[in-house]
Design goal:
The protein is an alpha+beta fold and about 80 residues long. It contains two helices and four strands; from the N terminus they run ααββββ. Helix content is about 30%, strand content about 15%. The strands form two sheets. It has a two-stranded antiparallel sheet. A two-stranded antiparallel ribbon has the order 3-4. The longest helix is centred in the first third of the chain and has 15 residues. About 0% of the residues are buried. Belongs to the bacterial ribosomal protein bL32 family. GO terms for molecular function: structural constituent of ribosome.
Length: about 80
């Protein structure tokens, strides 16, 4: 075992001038495999609700631009 390890070190030094090789994939990644992996890299649309107090759409759990939250005015409008 040790002898094989020593020969591997010597072989690496002869081929690369003493530098170790970089890790390289054993097989080419096909475009289908790449696209299957990337299907989850998509953006989702933000969830919006219709605010009846202001008549506008706003994101859930946030104060609207007119200062309303859950139908009550909690701050001055911008």
């Amino acid at each position: 075992m040790i002898i094989k390890y020593v020969f591997d070190i010597v072989k690496t030094q002869k081929i690369n001038g003493g530098h170790k090789l970089m890790a390289v994939p054993a097989r080419h990644t096909s475009s289908a495999k790449k696209n299957r992996r990337r299907t989850h890299y998509k953006l989702t649309a933000p969830t919006v609700k219709f605010d009846e107090a202001t008549g506008d759409y706003s994101r859930s759990h946030r104060v609207s631009l007119k200062g309303y939250y859950k139908g009550r005015q909690v701050r001055d409008a911008k």
